[in-house]
Amino acid sequence: MAKSEKGSKRAERVESDGTALNTSVESSARDQVAEALTKATADSYTLYAKTLGVHWNVQGASFYGLHNMTEAQYQELHEAADAIAERIRALGKLAPTGNASFRELTVIDNDAPHKPTREMIAELVDDNEKVARRMSEFAQLADEAGDLFSHDMLVARIGVHEQNAWMLRASLSD
Questions:
Q1: Which domains are seen in the chain, by residue range?
Q2: What mean pLDDT value characterizes the chain?
Q3: Closest to 145 measured CA to CA, from 49, 34, 33, 2
Q4: Whose CA is closest to 41, among 134, 111, 116?
Q5: Which pLDDT score, from 0 to 100, does residue 26 have?
Q6: SS3 letters for the chain?
Q7: Which long-range contacts (CB under 8 A, 24 or more apart) does 95-100 make?
Q8: d(CA 104, CA 45)
Q9: From the centroid of its chain, how far is CA 52?
Q10: pLDDT tens track for 5-31
Q11: Which whole-number Å values give the CA distances from 14 to 5, 32, 85, in the listed order?
Q12: How many whole angstroms from its chain centre is CA 14?
C-alpha cells in the first residue's frame, strides 16, 4: 500500500450518521482539536457578549471612540465564533451551544454587574490577553495534531486578541 493511501485509511472514520469522514487530520487528533476549538468557541462567544455589553454601556468623554471600537470588536468576535464552530463541524463534532455550556468552557467571566467604564475596559484588556494565551495553547495542539487549517485559524486569533488588548489598553492611558 502506498504511503498516501495508508495515511488516508488511518484518517477515515465512520460517523454516527453512517457517513465516512476522511479529512487531512487523523481521527484521534480530530477529537483533541475539536475539544480545543470547542473551548475557543466558548471564549470567543462569551467575549463577544461581554464586549457587546461594554459597547452598550460605555460612558464619559471617550464614549464615541470606545463605542465604535467595541462595536468593531464584537462584530469581529461574532464572525470568529461562527468560523471556529464551523471548523468543529468540519472535524465531525458538534459545536457547543447555550449559555450554560459556554460558561463551563470559557475562561471569561461575564456574570459581573455593570461597572464604571474604565473598569469594564480594563476587564476587556485582561480577557483578550487570556484568550490570546489560550488560543496559543490550542494552536500548538493543532500543530502537533497536524491540523494546519485549525492551527492557522488559531494563530490569526492570537493576533486579533493581542491587537484588541493593545487598543483597549491605549484607551485607558488618558
A1: 23-171 (1.20.1260.10)
A2: 90
A3: 33
A4: 134
A5: 82
A6: CCHHHHHHHHHCEECCCCCEECCCCCHHHHHHHHHHHHHHHHHHHHHHHHHHHHHHHCCCCCHHHHHHHHHHHHHHHHHHHHHHHHHHHHCCCCCCCCHHHHHHHCCCCCCCCCCCHHHHHHHHHHHHHHHHHHHHHHHHHHHHCCCHHHHHHHHHHHHHHHHHHHHHHHHCCC
A7: 95/38, 95/41, 96/38, 96/41, 96/42
A8: 13
A9: 16
A10: 444 444 455 554 556 677 778 888 899
A11: 17, 17, 21
A12: 28
Q: How does pLDDT run across 117-131, given as a tens digit for each residue?
A: 999 999 999 999 999
Distance, CA of 43 to CA of 51 (rounded, Å): 12
Q: Give the pLDDT score at 24.
A: 72
d(CA 116, CA 82): 30
pLDDT (mean) for 74-81: 98
Global confidence as pTM: 0.87
The pLDDT, as a whole number, for residue 18 is 52
Residue 79 and residue 38: Cα distance in Å, rounded? 15
pLDDT value at 149 more than 90: yes
Please report where in the chains the cell 457547543 appears, as a residue: 96
Residue 79, burial from CB neighbour count under 10 angstroms (0-12, 13-18, 19+): exposed
- Give the type of residue at 108: I
CB 120 within 8 A of CB 149: no
